[in-house]
Amino acid sequence: MRIAILSPIAWRTPPRYYGPWELIASTIAEALVATGFDVSLFATGDSHTSGTLEAICPRSYEEDKSIDPKVWESLHISNLMEKAGNYDIIHNHYDFLPLTYSRLIDTPIITTIHGFSSEQIIPVYKKYNSTSTYISISDADRHPDLNYHSTIYHGIDSKKFAFSAVKEDYLLFFGRIHEHKGTLEAIEIAKKSGYPLKIAGLIQDREYFARHIEPQINNTNITYLGNVNQAEGNALLGKAKALLHPIKFDEPFGLSVAEAMMCGTPVIAFNRGSMPEIIDYEKTGFLVDGISDAVSAIQNLDTISPDYCRSYAIKKFSIETMIESYIQVYKDILG
What we know:
Layout: E1 2-6, H1 20-35, E2 38-42, E3 52-54, H2 69-81, E4 89-92, E5 109-113, H3 122-127, E6 133-136, E7 150-151, E8 171-174, H4 183-193, E9 197-200, H5 206-213, E10 222-224, H6 230-239, E11 242-245, H7 255-262, E12 267-270, H8 275-278, E13 285-288, H9 291-298, H10 306-317, H11 319-334
């Protein structure tokens, strides 16, 4: 089976730092190659894969601002579509744009929907509802107007996330610095609980960071460590007393939540979006309804077993489970 994986070009695949869609595209590509499939990864020219790299855009537009996103995403997507006949399956991780080619080619397209930026993009998905195959990344993220083949949770490489049974006395916020992700709420939770907070992640909203977050950073109680790489992030996740995930939107999945549990670290998350699907309540963390509930949950962290967090994550979010599910989708589509 010849499979083309279409990754975004916002970041390199796999990303150096932030880039969840690119990370999942890379994880799937590498796992398929290891399983014996003929895989081509369509990504930026500086990307890495053990399969065949197909690239027309030299670098990511988030890392090289001379790259015009609209121009190069057009070139990038059309590069694959003009070669579609070389593949049995196209696995799309580039949102709705590639769907507009789907009735012009014979190769079936499977689209993993990583979330909806707004209701305004739904008409495109609806137009190709009957001729495309959609995969949701959580049941919570399914749109009522769309048809789905299945829900497949993101897979995580357990070998890259070291288990740590011994925790240090700090809380962690790990993710985009944005109001939707609840960075300020994490600071308030940490302050009220009496534990220091370490913050790591991409500053996505600089005005929000400058106005609400930066004034509270004192490198003692509240520390910002920057947009750390994977190795640094893994160490932070493994040693944290808990990951704070006070999201203010209905998050489709939440990779950092699964990654924390893979390290044996419990998660305290606001009860929204996919969180009830990802967290095993009172066994791998706590689902809370606000800051006060989160502070109370911190007092009960000792009831969470790091070993159970790890075993739960391996069972539910392993690469093997994810790849087996996707291979079955490919087989179903090809008959």
